[in-house]
Amino acid sequence: MVLKTRIAEAVKDAMRARDRERLGTLRLIQSEIKQFEVDERREPDDAVILAILNRMLKQRRDSIEQYRKGQREDLAAREEAEVAIIREYMPEPLGADAVAALIETAVRESGAAGPKDMGQVMAILKRRLSGRADMAEVSRAVREVLAERAGG
What CATH topology corresponds to 96-151? Predict the structure, then answer.
């Protein structure tokens, strides 16, 4: 709940500062959180809010890519500004070495022997890396590690 409170305080600050762009993005975040509350009929904890923020970041990255393909740099810049604001509420991203170490630990803990065990490894990593690493990249790395184990 700490994250939800931080976002609510940031909305108030943006209103006081008359920062329309920031306020708009923060209200989008609050809207997504409220939608979760309505859909699930429960208060989201910080882990759920991080998942919501991750989903919002992924949507914006996809939009930026599409806008750039369509040569709409103005729209891509606006999405990038939203990404920067959303990232303020995310934990510090982990470096590649830290992610690789966590992958090795998760593989060892799960007893994974090959690609068929990927789900077990990803379940462990999802809890540990939520909001701190691009899970698509993590998935690729896990697939490579498990393929090496199966082949070697």
Answer: Arc Repressor Mutant, subunit A (1.10.10)
